[in-house]
């Protein structure tokens, strides 16, 4: 089961301070808008998101349909199919935003320790 691009979405208190720190250790801005309090940073194949005031906790994020550079990939498990597979396995869906039969959609689950895992499809 291919889950797509992986990143960690970090809840930060001060996005400017966090950006300065992550730049010091080698990350560069890849996407986002600091004026809207979110940035996506990249170091090699490692992606992290900085989010100020958007989430309560850090979130592991998978983007079905994208590689680590946010390029669309041809063959991937659609987020709707992933959700259905997880439900069939007895995994509880914590949140969902699925309003159509294809295209962008998302859902999240929690691991046994309460860590959120977001499946956020943009294609």
User: How far apart, in Å, are the first and last alpha carbons?
Assistant: 17 Å
State the low-pLDDT regions, or none. none
Biggest sheet character? 8 strands, mixed
Mean pLDDT metric: 95
The amount of beta strand, in percent, is 35-45%
Widest sheet: strand ordering: 2-3-4-1-5-8-7-6
Brief account:
This protein is of the alpha+beta class and 123 residues long. Helix content is 16%, strand content 40%. The protein has 2 helices and 8 strands, in the order E-H-E-E-E-E-H-E-E-E.
Verbal overview:
This protein is an alpha+beta fold and 123 residues long. Helix content is 16%, strand content 40%. It is built from 2 helices and 8 strands. It has an 8-stranded mixed sheet with strand order 2-3-4-1-5-8-7-6, covered by helices on one side. The longest helix is centred in the N-terminal third of the chain and has 10 residues, at 15-24. The two termini are 17 Å apart. The mean pLDDT is 95.
List keywords for this structure.
16% helix; alpha+beta; 2 helices; 123 residues; 40% strand
């Amino acid at each position: 089961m291919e889950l797509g691009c992986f990143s960690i979405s970090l809840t930060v208190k001060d996005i400017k301070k966090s950006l300065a720190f992550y730049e010091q250790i080698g990350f560069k801005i890849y996407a986002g808008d600091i004026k809207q309090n979110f940035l996506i940073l990249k170091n090699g194949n490692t992606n992290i998101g900085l989010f100020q005031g958007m989430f309560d906790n850090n979130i592991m994020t998978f983007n079905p349909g994208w590689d680590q550079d946010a390029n669309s990939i041809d063959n991937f498990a659609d987020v709707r199919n992933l959700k259905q597979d997880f439900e069939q396995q007895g995994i509880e869906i914590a949140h969902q935003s699925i309003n159509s039969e294809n295209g962008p959609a998302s859902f999240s689950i929690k691991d046994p320790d309460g860590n959120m895992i977001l499946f956020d499809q943009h294609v």
